[in-house]
Every structure is written in structure tokens, then in C-alpha cells.
Request: fold
Amino acid sequence: MKTKEDLRRLLLSIDHKGYLAYKETKGKWSWGNYVLSIDHVQGDPFATPSGVSVIVPGKTAGFPEAYVKEDHRRIALQDHLLRLFGEKLVQRERSYAGSGKSGLVTTSRPGQEVLERTACRIEPADGQVTLRFQVGFPANGRTINARELLRILEEQLPETVEKTLMRQNLNQKALEGVIDLADDRKYIRSQLEERGLCAFIADGSILPRKSGVSSLPMQNAVPFKSPESMAVIMELPHHGSLRGMGIRKGITLIVGGGYHGKSTLLQALEMGVYDHIKGDGREYVITDPQAVKIRAEDGRSIVGTDISVFIQDLPNGKDTVRFTTEDASGSTSQAANVVEAMEAGCSLLLIDEDTSATNFMVRDSLMASVVSPDKEPITPFVSRIRDLYETSGVSTILVAGSSGAFFHEADTVILMDRYIPCDITGKAKAAAALEGDGLRKTIPEGRKYHGISQNRIPEADRALLREQRIKLKTLSDDSFLIAHNEVDLRGLEQIADREQTAALAYMLKYMQLHLLDGKTSLPQAARKMLALTNRQGLEILFEGSAPGNGLAQVRLAELCGMLNRFRNLRIK
Ligand code: ADP
Ligand code: MG
Reply:
């Protein structure tokens, strides 16, 4: 392998030359302790910065096998190293006025969630650490400023690598804390299943966030505290005994006056499918990993989804067994969201009345007595919620501040009172009993629940495959372009960040090229995609250098959710 001296010689020989001469630096350079890999060289100072990575051999990085072999620890460690590396990079400043982004060094800056990211990858087999980042190769005008690049590569980078990627130089206590937290969370997740719970929220958790645009914890928030009747104690391997609220499988309502913290609790549960870093306040808010937030999503496209358990006999005679539309209504979109979530193996629905279509959720008895059920296409969610659990094993946690209709069906009713939960199940059930029967009797004979089964077989989009090169572009945290089609993911509220959105874009392309073969069902194809990336790394999704700040792994729910929102989805 060529060495750092070779790169130095090369750089000095192209100093002050035209920018394109930088292209010669592409390749791997031995840098003593580690390897510097220049994966992609930008074409001009204003283009996307160049992709660079450092590869530290397992022996040099020095993380023991026990830290890297199991996924939960490895991912937590990767996340920790990436944050350390990123912080140190940011401390450095550009000391000269370069053109474009020249001289700037950036890498992934993860939010509060701990995810598998291409920005930092540790090989489970040998502990080799790869850290990927971007460098705006320095220029004066459009000519090469090689000395400045050498300053970054020879002075700043080695120190950063030493201080942040090598075990012996890290704060050992912080490092152990990261590994311990990962173990403790894994333990809670395993206990959920064992104890018949779908979520756990530790006492002392801080659920609200700083603001609508910041996912940092709110200062001086009221800490969470479980009511006695719902309290469970977890004996964590490292942290020890931890008390918190256990939400049982089944149907749970969250009620309470406006502004008492209902939606905040639900949002914490939504993100509880992911792990959170220390100091987040939600370290021990753990939700069933198959939980899916369901909302109304007017305007989304639907391709061949069987929404007939909720909607039947439309006045225009439209088929609801294979329901297709370019522009769904509130109720049809929410129905499709439930069915598609279940198709992808969802076991817990999270629903907030604030973002639901009222006519999808409930129909009061007065309305039912005036409009006979066989004239009403919608079988409301309240009439199915019990069946979904009893027959299909899908639990629901529902925020319902304004309708008592769900009291009849609920197993547990939690009242949020000034941000503190109280168990009012007994009281709510008694009140419901006084009101008489629930709404279930209003379901006509032909609309009995028989479970949800659909088997949609997607095919690749031929128009897309005809493109010379399928271009991808991440537009925002929740939308991307593939070729010229925008895919809008705003309805998928559990997407943690832009790197997940980028991963979804790359997966769509990969699946179009390799997995949508007209024989494999949609969730099966998605499972294959995830299995491939989990086994071989997300790196299989791109060639050479990682796009932008890289990709982050997604869940099956979001992958299927994305496919379902691709407007050119072809179903056989
Ligand atoms: P609801 O859905 O019941 O109307 P929200 O969950 O939207 O209420 O919360 C209302 C406000 O209270 C929000 O601004 C939220 O940030 C804040 N909040 C929520 N939980 C807490 C808490 N534990 N401590 C302090 N403020 C909170
Ligand atoms: Mg609310």
C-alpha cells in the first residue's frame, strides 16, 4: 500500500494546479497506525465535499471482543465513537478563507437516537473501526491548496483519531457507561415480552422535549412517575433495581384534559422503539420494537390495500378489498395505515386522537341510531379495536381526550393529570357501564372481523429501470427524490432522522433493481432488504463513498411504509 509520504509527495507536486488534479489522491494510504482512504474526490470546490474514511485495525483500536460481538453493544459503541469524533472535528476551525466548502471537515451528527450508521462501522469479527467523514478539499479560487489539505490530514486528523477511536485514550468510565446502558436496555426489552408488557417507562424519565424543533430534553420538566397499580420493578444487570410504569398488552387509553401531557407521553412511546443516549431523559423509555404510530394522512397514495375491515360498500362502488387511490381521504388513509402496519408485522398501534380522522375512530350512538350501519361504509376503529387484539394480537395505546367511546373496550385507562399518570381504569369502566353498551352492536352481520390478511406482490417499476442512472436525492428529513418522483414520508412519524430517510431512498433503488421480482410479497422483500444490510452492512447500498453524512438503519415498519408511499408502486 502507498504511504503517507507518497501522498505528501503527490500533494506537493499538484499544489497550485487545477482542482481536478486532486482526483489522483483517490485510494488507500497507509498512515502508520491506521489507513486513510480517500473514497471520492469532488470535482470542484463547490461540489459535494470529498468522501474520506479512516480505518483503524481492531488491534490498534483495542476494543475487546465483548464490546463488539453483540449487535446492541457494537451499535452503542459505534454511536459513542462517532459522537466523540464529530465533536472533536467541530472544535477545529478553518484558518484560511477557502472557496466553497473547502477546508471544512464534517461528519454525521446524530440526534438523540442510537442507530446503526454507516458513518461509523465496527467489524464484529475483528473490531476494525471505520469512520467516514467529508472533507472539502482546500482550494484558492479553483486551484489546489495542498498545504492546507496536508495540515488537515497530517496534523488534525491523526490527533482526532488517536483521541477518539482508540480505547486507551478514551474516558473509561464513560465508555463503560455506554456499554452498560446498552445491556440494561436490552434486558428491559427482553423483559417486556416475558412480562406481557408492550412498554415500560421508568420513574424519573423526562418525556417532553425542549421545543418543537429540538429533541433535547426539556429543562425543569415534571419527571415521570408510575401509579402504584401499574408499577413494575426491573432488576437491571448494571443499573440495578428500576421502578417504572408497565403498560400491559391489550388496549390502553390515555385520557386527560388538554395540555396535561397526553401527546407527550405517546410521542415518547413512539420513539421508545429506539435506544436513546445517556442524558436524553428517555434512556429507559422502552417500547415494543414493532410499535407503529398511526395517523390520518390525507393525500397519500394507496396501491391495492385491503381496507375492507374498516371501509366497505362505498357509494361509488369502489373496491375496498384492493383499494387504490392517488389521493386518500382522512379515513381511508388511516385505515390503510393500520392494515399496512399489520401487514409488516406490527404488534402495537400508537394513535393520537389529535392526528386521527374522527369518522375513522368513532361514531356515537346517536348518529348510529339515525344513520343505519348498513348505510355507513365505515366500521369505526372503536368497533374493531377489541378484535384487533383478540384475533390478531395487535395491542393499541390510544390518546383519547374527548371521546368516552373507548372506555367500554379498554383494559387500562390512564389519566394524565399535570403530567403525572393515574390509573383510573375502575372509575372509567364504572362510568361506561352506567352509559350502557358500547358501539359494537352496531356492526352489521356481514362485517364480522376475520383478521387482516393481504398478500401484495410488488413488481419493479419498469419506467424507473429504464433510467440510465437512477438518481437519488434526500430533500428533507422526511422526503426524497428517486429519478423524478418525490416520495413523501411525513406520515411516518417514527423516522428518527435524515440518515434514515437517505437509507430508505437507497433501499428503494436497491429493491427496484434486485428484490421486487414479481414473486416476493412486499413485506418479504422488505425483510430480505433488512437481512442483507444487517448481515453485510448498509455499505452494500452505495458504491465508493457514502452519500452525504451517510445512512442509518431503519425498521421494517418504515421500510414497508416507504414502499407503500412510493406513488409508482406496482402491485401484480
Ligand atoms: P396534551 O396532549 O394532553 O394536550 P401535550 O402532551 O401536548 O398535552 O403537552 C402540553 C405541553 O406540556 C407541551 O408544551 C409539553 O411540552 C408540556 N409538557 C408535557 N409533559 C411535560 C412534563 N412532564 N413537564 C413539563 N411540561 C410538560
Ligand atoms: Mg395532545
The mean pLDDT is 94. Residues 273 and 493 are 12 Å apart (CA to CA).
